[in-house]
Design brief:
The complex is a heterodimer of chains A (171) and B (125). Chain A contains six helices and no strands. Chain A has 171 residues and is mainly alpha-helical. The relative contact order of chain A is 0.13. Chain B is of the alpha+beta class. Chain B has two domains: 30 residues; 81 residues, Sandwich (mini-chromosome maintenance (MCM) complex, domain 2), CATH 2.60.320.10. Chain B is built from two helices and seven strands. Chain B has a four-stranded antiparallel sheet with strand order 2-1-7-6. Chain B has a three-stranded antiparallel sheet with strand order 3-4-5. In chain B, strand 4 and strand 5 form a beta hairpin. The chains are: A mainly alpha (171), B alpha+beta (125). At the A-B interface, helix 5 and helix 6 of A face helix 1 and helix 2 of B.
Chain lengths: 171, 125
Amino acid sequence: MRKRSATRRLTLLTMLLAMSILLHMIEPALPIPVPGVKLGLANILGLITLYLFGIKEMMTVNVMRVLMASLLRGILFGTGFWLSMSGMLLSSLITILLFKQNKFTKIGISIASSALHGIGQIVALIFINNTIMMVYWLPMLWFSSIPTGYITGTLSVQVLKRLKVTERNRV
Amino acid sequence: MNRYDKGLVIFILISSLLMYTTMEWFVRYTTSDQIVAVVYSYDKEVLRIDLNVDKVYEVEGTLGIVFIEVENKRIRVEKETSPYHLCSIQGWVEYANIPIVCLPNHIVIIIENGSVDPNDPDVTS
């Protein structure tokens, strides 16, 4: 029984990772008129992993997602990779902190995660381009985190609701 | 959304507005009449453009030629080869400290206060 559960867990995590890589890769093709602003669809899978499994698994999925998507796109250790990695690390950090506090809803955590993702990207840009002026993008990314975080948070809530129904039906 | 979420949204709204107005005020206040656009490729200055002269400049980017247009003391990336054309979508920039970043081409354009030295061989006006 224990062995079967471990296999199921591994399969689920692998599926979540595969879906997050897919979303990470197709997202830049989505037309958003504001430069630098993205929906952060892959964060939905991070949030789902956090609520289904826990902090360690969410970090594994997020780090593996950035590494593997960058490898598949041929930009490993390139500019895009460092932007994704720094954004992901900061957003994961705030997600873990707020998740442990247990005061915010999934939507609130998603908005905070989206906001910190923007800061992470700006910090990486400042180091890559060696100029503090990149900070000018911060208000726009900071503000856009409200609608993008709300959308990804709401999608995560809906997916989690449906996943729980599936789990109940299986038992 | 609970009250903590709402508080977070209000905090982000107010802080982004404050950040924007502070930066906008700083940029407008520090921009003088004598402005030049400095073009960097891989962190190295490759071109210094006089914004008083309307002209189209060409800079070699990683993915191809980046066309930079100057008109009425404003600057923009007119055309470039990149997956999503984000820097040409950004449009015209006329104030100092607002950078145009073409990440795939490794080109950064920054408007600075100053003048173009016509004796400098690396400088175009």
